[in-house]
Specification:
Layout lengths: L4 H16 L5 H18 L3 H6 L7 H4 L5 H11 L6 H4 L1 H7 L8 E3 L5 H10 L2 E5 L9 E5 L6 H11 L2 E4 L5 H4 L8 E8 L5 E10 L14 E4 L11 E2 L5 E2 L17 H12 L7 E8 L5 E7 L5 H4 L7 H15 L1
Antiparallel strand pairs: 1-4, 2-3, 2-4, 5-6, 5-10, 6-7, 8-9, 10-11
Length: 333
């Protein structure tokens, strides 16, 4: 449901109290409101940009460095063919297009028979049920088939909701040590440059919390930046409530300085995957390492939110993109 103007201002004042400047007096509130409105009108930023990038405390020269909502839209417009977005947004189609990189059993219940469904369930006593177009870690459920009393009814439900079923991966022991109730992943952002080379723009370690079955930043997850040259985590972890962690709050495993396993292989995998649909130049890949050492893709996001690559160190990444985008634009002319 679209917010009314009143609702937007209520949310703005709530964010001022909770996120920007707690206990702000009336003059400070007015200053923040007018500062945000100027940013909104002049630079096409959203309230979430203003809050999460701490714009109230930054000068204009610093604010210009951040990939905000308007700049993300520019990246997508320049880089990604909208006709090919469906290969990433629809999970069954993504699995088909990138089947060589999945490393797991899966089933599109929309198109399967009951016999095939039963066979799949027999092979996988525990599975993920995914909405075909879910985002932000939503639309995902972990199902233990031992708890399903009637498999026929479960089949009908899956068909009705057009669910994608996937085998639960056994992740690398080092990643699982942070939290093993969910698969912990690495977000790697790739950009196909004007010369058709693949550039790694950023990488983030995404960690789940105890009892959760998704590691998404918008699903109570923790995010830390990774040095793309070495594969070593080089910032503290941050969650959506702006808590900061040097160690995982549940397992107490150290986050800062963690060496991502199979880093060279991860880089090679995403660079190859980026070329499957080269007309989609900008993609945020979610990748993990199986206990066998195999590198697998969880999903690819052609509208990858830059928040998890900028919040941790509060350094804007726009200067990394702008010259490359100009080169891509010049090639299209």
């Amino acid at each position: 449901m679209k917010e009314s103007i009143l609702q937007k201002f209520i949310r703005l004042f709530r964010d001022i109290d909770n996120e920007v400047l707690p206990n702000a007096n009336i003059l400070e509130r007015i200053r923040i409101v007018f500062d945000f409105l100027w940013e909104k009108v002049r630079y096409n930023i959203e309230l979430i940009d203003y809050v999460q990038y701490r714009f109230y405390f930054k000068r204009r020269i610093e604010r210009n460095q951040f990939i905000t909502h308007g700049k993300l839209l520019r990246i997508i417009k320049i880089c990604n063919d909208p006709k090919s977005r469906m290969f990433f947004d629809l999970k069954p189609l993504f699995n088909q297009e990138f089947k060589d990189y999945l490393g797991r059993d899966w089933l599109d219940t929309k198109a399967c028979s009951k016999e095939v469904f039963y066979s799949f369930c027999k092979r996988n006593p525990m599975l993920f049920c995914k909405s075909p177009d879910g985002m932000f870690g939503k639309g995902i459920n972990l199902v233990h088939l031992a708890d399903v009393s009637n498999l026929d009814i479960f089949y009908d439900t899956c068909k009705k909701d057009k669910l994608l079923l996937e085998e639960v991966l056994e992740q690398n022991d080092e990643l699982a040590a942070f939290n093993n109730s969910a698969v912990n992943t690495v977000r790697v952002v790739t950009l196909i440059c004007a010369d058709e080379s693949v550039r790694i723009m950023a990488a983030v370690l995404r960690l789940s919390r105890k009892g959760k079955f998704a590691d998404n930043f918008h699903h109570d997850g923790i995010a830390s930046l990774i040095d793309v040259e070495t594969g070593i985590v080089n910032t503290v972890g941050v969650d959506r409530k702006w808590n900061r962690y040097t160690v995982h709050p549940d397992s107490r495993k150290t986050i800062v300085g963690f060496q991502i396993p199979k880093w060279t292989e991860i880089m090679g995998t995403v660079k190859k995957a980026a070329k499957v649909h080269p007309e989609v130049r900008y993609i945020g890949w979610d990748v993990t390492v199986k206990n066998s050492g195999e590198i697998v893709l969880i999903e690819g996001n052609p509208g990858a939110d830059p928040d998890v690559t900028q919040i941790e160190d509060q350094i804007g990444k726009w200067p990394l993109y702008e010259p490359l985008l100009l080169e891509i634009e010049s090639c299209k002319e």
